Amino acid sequence: MEVNAGDLAERWDAGEPDPAHGGSPAAWTCWWMPLPQAHVLAAGLGAGLGRLGQHEKGP
């Protein structure tokens, strides 16, 4: 996985204005983060990122 050269500081808004569970709308801000810094993601979301880019080698 690779981000093309550009402004990695760019942020954009995303969200769910009408959740299927009927709850309140949710909104969040997204941005690209270098994988070596992704360990700081909340709720353990960064735990599996170390496996990205690793591929099993066949016989």
Q: What's the mean pLDDT score?
A: 76
Count of helix runs: 0
Terminal residue distance? 24 Å
Strands, count: 2
Unreliable stretches (pLDDT < 50, length at least 5) are none
Q: Can you give the helix content as a percent range?
A: under 10%
Features of the shown structure:
2 strands, flat, two-stranded antiparallel ribbon, mainly beta, 59 residues
Please tell me about this protein's structure:
This protein is mainly beta and 59 residues long. It has strands at residues 11-16, 26-31. Strands 1-2 form a two-stranded antiparallel ribbon. The radius of gyration is 16 Å and the shape is flat. It starts with 10 loop residues before the first strand and ends in a 28-residue tail after the last strand.
Secondary-structure blueprint:
Layout: E1 11-16, E2 26-31
Antiparallel strand pairs: 1-2
Summarize the model shown.
With 59 residues, the protein is mainly β.
